[in-house]
Amino acid sequence: MKSELQFLGAAETVTGSRFLLSAGRRRYLVDCGLFQGGRRLRDLNWEPFSAPPETLDAVLITHAHIDHVGWLPRLVRQGYRGPAYATHATAALMEILLPDAAYLQEQDAAFANKKGYSRHKPALPLYTAKDAERALESVRTVAFNQTLSIDGTDVTWRPAGHILGSAMLEVQLDGRRLVFSGDLGRYDNEIMKPPEQVGEADVLLVESTYGDRLHAEGSIDATLTQAVAHVIEREGVLLIPAFAVGRTQQVLYHLRRLQERGSIPDLPVFVDSPMAVDASEIYCRYGDDHNLDVNLVMDDEACPLRCRDTHFVREVEESKRLNRMRGPAIIISASGMCTGGRIKHHLKWRLPDPRNAVLFVGYQAQGTRGRQLADGSKQVRIHGQQLKVGASVFKVDALSAHADRSELLRWLEGFDPRPEQTFVIHGEPHASQDLAQSLQHRGWGNVQVPKLRASFELL
Ligand code: ZN
């Protein structure tokens, strides 16, 4: 039977992962991600789904990042009533991430109405909290390495090591084996296990976020130690902007290890983000999905995802009280690129004072406040106010959750025989092209970088 694969997102770009697999009357959507970034990309979120949503049999989810699941509430809003399958930990993370995404959409619409810049009057949110709730009701959980049968199509979720619950999908459809890499993690991460090696595929979709780059050498430990020493000496506060899911837990893990080794003294650490607190709890709940021994409650001092003297801050009032706190101390807060969330308030309070420091632990996209600071800007604007940057700025980029070029190739070398069709996806055009060319040089045949909306018949 003729089968077809259509690239509805993450083609020549890194966001909006959506791949439509059709065979006869059966239709599956692998990932249902939101496009993120500039206007041109965000506008794509408003396009109706390429087929009537009710003709879909299932949505199959690789992991909980918004660029992989953040369009599900929109699909539900458009009439999708079927199931969305995900691993247990992914489902748990979606419970905190989707309502937050809906909140941001509603806020955006409200802001556009206030400023009157929307093309639609009134501006409507892409989806609401109610849509996110209905999307969550559609989620069905599956265990890793267990095969789910949907009308004769077998799907298996295999560990991808990218974030908690993240999976690559193996789909058996009419005698063909398709592998969707999802986002691939790293081979030497302390928290996540390495991506599982898949031996065979007829059709392979591989991500290429870092298809043309290697991660910088060097560890976070040296920079963390330096930044902590800076605030201890000056009795200042170290601000660490970090994504709530994954990155915050990684930072806590490293801080704890440095304390245990005696590289840094004990000092109060505040995790000021309700979402990060929830995410940490989920990491503790799904201890089997990662390397750490966290079959402990998070309140236990021995939990490796907290350091000594860690305080988890949920309440707004408690967060505000941190403004009056004297150093030395550490505040870890979201968002990771300083574009929203409580970190903005902390920056407003702490940036002008040279006793304080800011440590960036993740990629800072062009045009964000985080990028401005990381690039050494001496002034930034927060809440309409121009602030002088007196605090010292430190950065490490060793904490990526994505496999780099050499790790991608290592994972790809595991395919024996080589797939008949390979699609390089989820990368900026040069990154995808670069990885595709490397595969061609290594003798892989039929490697393509699909364009957005392109359809391919499966051989
Ligand atoms: Zn991801």
Layout of strands and helices, then pairs:
Blueprint: E1 3-7, E2 19-23, E3 26-30, H1 39-44, E4 58-60, H2 66-69, H3 72-77, E5 84-87, H4 88-115, H5 129-137, E6 139-142, E7 147-150, E8 153-159, E9 167-173, E10 176-180, E11 203-207, H6 220-234, E12 237-241, H7 247-261, E13 269-272, H8 274-285, E14 310-313, H9 316-321, E15 329-333, H10 343-350, E16 357-360, H11 369-374, E17 379-382, E18 385-388, E19 392-395, H12 405-412, E20 421-425, H13 429-441, E21 447-448, E22 455-457
Parallel strand pairs: 3-4, 4-5, 5-6, 10-11, 11-20, 12-15, 12-16, 13-14, 13-15, 16-19, 20-21
Antiparallel strand pairs: 1-2, 1-22, 2-3, 7-8, 8-9, 9-10, 17-18
The structure holds zinc ion.
Give an overview of the whole structure:
- With 459 residues, this protein is α/β, with parallel strands linked by helices.
- It is globular, with a radius of gyration of 22 Å.
- 30% of the residues lie in helices and 21% in strands.
- A seven-stranded mixed beta sheet has the order 6-5-4-3-2-1-22. It has a seven-stranded mixed beta sheet with strand order 7-8-9-10-11-20-21, covered by helices on one side. A six-stranded parallel beta sheet has the order 14-13-15-12-16-19, sandwiched between helices.
- The chain starts with a strand and ends with a strand.
- The model has no long low-confidence stretch (mean pLDDT 92).
- Helix 4 (88-115) packs antiparallel against helix 5 (129-137).
- Bound molecules: zinc ion (ZN).
- Residues 63, 65, 162, 183 line the site of zinc ion.
